[in-house]
Amino acid sequence: MTIFLLISVAFAQSPNEAWPSGSAADTYYTAEQQYKDSDKKLNMIYKKLLNASYANTTPEIAIRHLVEAQKTWIKFRDTTCAMEGELRGGWPTWKSAKEMICKSEMTIQRIKDLENLFFDCCQAPPPQQK
Fold first, then answer.
1. Which structural domain, as residue segments, surrounds residue 40?
2. Of the N and C termini of the chain, which has fewer Cβ atoms inside 10 Å?
3. 27 burial type by CB count under 10 A (0-12 exposed, 13-18 middle, 19+ buried)
4. Exposed, middle or buried by CB within 10 Å (0-12, 13-18, 19+), for 73?
5. Would you say residue 10 lies in a domain?
6. Is residue 114 part of a domain?
């Protein structure tokens, strides 16, 4: 009965409450949550770009390049972060945490890059003042 109660209490906590602050598991969980949130935002801006109107080129050409660039960037991110996790991680649990931190940070930077691209190429010019 006591064992069941202890297990129930452990599962009732959120994952990062169950692990000591600064531990590999806590670091991984925090980075994973940040990555998931960032990935949702990245997908939103990516879809915005897919549906944008382009002043300097045809939509077909712009979309083809955008899709190819995004596929290439995802491979680059995943490969780079796997390498970072392996080389900077140390123990296996830290390797996963370092890889997830890298994915989160690179995704946040990609959001900024795509937002800048959207602003530069796809925003309607402001109305002219009379």
1. 17-121
2. C
3. buried
4. middle
5. no
6. yes
> Cα–Cα distances in Å, from 16 out to 44, 53, 96?
27, 43, 15
Per-residue pLDDT tens over the stretch 37-69 = 999 999 999 999 998 877 778 888 989 999 999
| Axis-axis angle for helices 92-122, 24-50 (nearest 10) | 20
The number of domains in the chain is: 1
Domain presence at residue 49: yes
CATH code at position 98: 1.20.1270.180
Read off the pLDDT of residues 62-74 as tens digits, 9 standing for 90 and up: 899 999 999 999 9
**CB count in 10 Å sphere of residue 16:** 17
For Cα atoms 5, 10, 14, give the angle at the middle one, nearest 5 degrees. 145
Buried b (16+ CB within 10 A) or exposed e, 98-128: bbbbbbbbbbeebbeebeeeeeeebeeeeee
